[in-house]
Amino acid sequence: MASSESGTEEVRVSALTPLKLVGLVCVFLALCLDVGAVLSPAWVTADDQYYLSMWVSCWKPVSSAQWSCNGTLATDWQIATLALLLGGAALTLLSFLMALMSLCASCRSRCYKPVAVMLFSAVVLQVCSLVLFPIKFIEMVSLRVYHEFNWGYGLAWGSTIFSFGGAILYCLNPKNYEDYY
Asked: How many Å apart are CA 99 and CA 23, to the nearest integer?
């Protein structure tokens, strides 16, 4: 704030608001959940006889104590699921870095729109991945026991929800609500 000779005061308004900080926290949480989902060993489990992650599929016959495991990147749908999920995670990482840099640089308001666009794009990729996965899993794998989509799948949905929330917060125009802060 600077005073001029005529006694009027010039007010400098920053485009950084608490909602943008909350948006940055949402993007960071989405990024953490993405890492957890990709590294999770449990996307699908079935009565201590089967589990599936993004990287490995293991099963254990009822009469045996030995687990048999295979890599999961042998089918197109599993590769597509992983590629979509990693693509969304990469966009989330880029948007987090851009949002973080906008805190330090003077391009705050100019960076909000690209961050929001990247986050919405990440949400689209991740939703496609998370819809493709159960459809193709149920179509391709015939388990004769009860199976459930486990916490790794849930972490991926959590990441998608936080990315969507961050995108909405970065879409809000600070000129419309700066009077409240």
From this structure: 9
**Number of helices and strands in the chain (H, E):** 5, 7
What confidence score (pLDDT) does residue 20 get? 82
Cβ(88)–Cβ(129) below 8 Å: yes
Distance, CA of 41 to CA of 153 (rounded, Å): 10
The whole-number pLDDT of residue 117 equals 94
Note the pTM of the prediction, 2 decimals.
Answer: 0.82
Q: What is the pLDDT of residue 85?
A: 95
Structure tokens at 110: 């100019």
Cβ neighbours of 66 (radius 10 Å): 6
Residues 35 and 89: beta-carbon distance below 8 Å = yes
Extract the residue ranges of the chain whose pLDDT is less than 70. 1-16, 106-109, 143-144, 173-181
Strand order in the sheet with 68-71: 68-71, 56-59, 50-52, 44-46, 148-149
Residue 133 near residue 23, CB atoms below 8 Å: no
pLDDT (0 to 100) of residue 36: 95
Write down how long the chain is. 181
Contact 71, 82 (CB under 8 A): no
